[in-house]
Amino acid sequence: MVKNGFLEKIKTGLMKTRNLLNTNLEDLFAGKKELDKKLFDELEELLIMADMGPQFTRDLISDVRDRLNRKELQDAGQIKKIMHDRMSAILRQVDKPLNIPQGQPFVIMAVGVNGSGKTTTIGKLANSLRKEGHEVMLVAADTFRAAAIEQLEVWGERVGAPVIKQKMNADPAAVVFDAMGKIKSGYCGVVIVDTAGRLHTRVNLMEELKKIKRVMGKEMAGTPHETLLVLDATTGQNAVIQAKMFKEEIGATGIVLTKLDGTSKGGVVVRIAGELSLPVRYIGVGEGLDDLRVFDGNDFVSALLD
Description:
Blueprint: H1 2-13, H2 15-29, H3 37-49, H4 54-69, H5 79-92, E1 106-111, H6 118-131, E2 136-140, H7 146-159, E3 163-164, H8 172-184, E4 190-194, H9 202-219, E5 226-232, H10 237-250, E6 254-258, H11 268-276, E7 280-284, E8 292-294, H12 297-305
Helix pairs in contact: 1-12, 2-3, 3-4, 5-12, 6-7, 8-9, 10-11
């Protein structure tokens, strides 16, 4: 029952992408037995609209053509099964939940551009971890926006997590240094660091994030244990570009994809997985406190296509 409820929640959250794919696929295949060039062109357009990406689209259509030549396909409707299998295979490779040990320090550095839902994601993640029995401490290292500090404090109060902060415009690395001091003093919970995301000052932003990582690593070897990149699914191609940038420059180790309930471009998960091979840790499928979900590739594909 819990599993079914979970899947139904994801289906609801992915409704726009689900409707785009299923309605259009049904229209595409309705009454068609013959696999002709027109059908392939329309299928290609549909996959691009869902932001599956050019590589997945080319590979899928190539696979279908090969099977057609080998006379393994009887009708157009079988393409959906092929799509299901290929999506599942790609997502299986990045289906790696974040493993956070109990009773020892674990540092998560959350990165991403402003507007991606980063601070809200941190709050929801803190709530989820608290429910699992973890101690959680939040760190307000986005010191250039008063609203960011205030928003994190609101989340801290809401989920029962203390917030480490300094005054506005303080050095973000100094705030992180304070938090690392708590660990050295015996704190054994999860530390989630909120960082700035002013992409229009890209060079400065990246240098600032690298400095924060250096400070962490100097104070405690191996930290951050996870550099969690928060991406807004509604931005489609821009989310892919951001993922590549943060992976290359900051060393992002996992992804949270937010706002999947507000987009028909949910296929971008498949694209990011295929092109970047970064684990997708969580997905956001609604605005509720419990709408940050651990990513499950099989559930995701089922929610889109079944």
